[in-house]
Amino acid sequence: MEKNCLNCNNVRKVVIIGAGFVGAASAFCIMQSGLFSEIVLIDSDKAKAEGEALDISHGVTFAKPTKIYAGDYDDIDNATLIIITAGANQKEGETRLDLVKKNISIFKSIMPEIKNRKFDGILLIVSNPVDILTTVALKLSGLSEKKVIGSGTVLDTARLKYELGNLLNVDSRSVHAFIIGEHGDSEIAVWSSANISGIPLKTFYKMREHCNYDEDMQKIADDVKNSAYKIIDKKHATYYGIAMSVKRICEAIVRDEKSIMPISSIMHGEYNIEGISLSMPAIVGKDGVETHVPIQLNKIETESLKHSANTLCDILVQNGIIIS
Questions:
Q1: Could you say which of 176, 183, 236, 292 is catalytic?
Q2: Do 170 and 87 lie in a common domain?
Q3: Residue 176 catalytic?
Q4: Number of domains into which the chain is organized
Q5: Is residue 267 assigned to a domain?
Q6: pLDDT tens digits, one per residue of 59-95
Q7: How far apart are CA 172 and CA 163, in angstroms?
């Protein structure tokens, strides 16, 4: 019988591998949340990890008691969650897929370290390209596929809800819609099942007396897809939005919320997609992914999803990753 990671491990301990912009911002968000009593930062630059841990520690007085320190791979044994943010940063003009070779190489050095310890918790991949690296992590870590997940399109979906909320002048938390597929250029905004508190999106759009539905939805989809490029162009990196997404995923796991979110996890025949990790709605709780949640897709969205999957498959094969 598979061990329950929250019973076997220290539910209050999280390890973040990578103390760059995303890793440090994630540690800061997690510290503020009070979800964990122990946060370990691991980085190839030990001094960087020590500096970030010290800086964040000085804010603990204003939050909840939390031990934050720079550690090494021996500190992962009894953690309930490892978050991997390590990897090359996406630069101006680069797509997430351009990072593949560099970050697969980095993962090939990290995963044996995890595999050689007694870690049996949940592995959350945040590094880009997240869907490809989630597949790589699954194959190299030896962990159960339910315990290896990626941050997927959780942030893209938040951006979509934000843009729709602004357009329709409604609380974005009342917007129910998903970005699915690749966290990247082939991502898909699922308009066919989008709704505002149960009211179909198109109906609510007309209720708000807008009149250019197709044009407005295309603009929003493009804005969401290009958000990271725009931010990188202006400030050279993105980290606050993804850090808040990481914190939200951690909440679902630690509190066993059974929340539905579009994380990246392995596909087994859904929409005829097999053997790769893709960002799709799934129930997330203390054991990682419980199950995928089928959502209504029209013909165009289904074909776009298959195209997104094929794009990722081609990249994996080109980099010597066997699809099974």
A1: 183
A2: no
A3: no
A4: 2
A5: yes
A6: 999 999 999 999 999 999 899 999 999 998 777 777 7
A7: 8
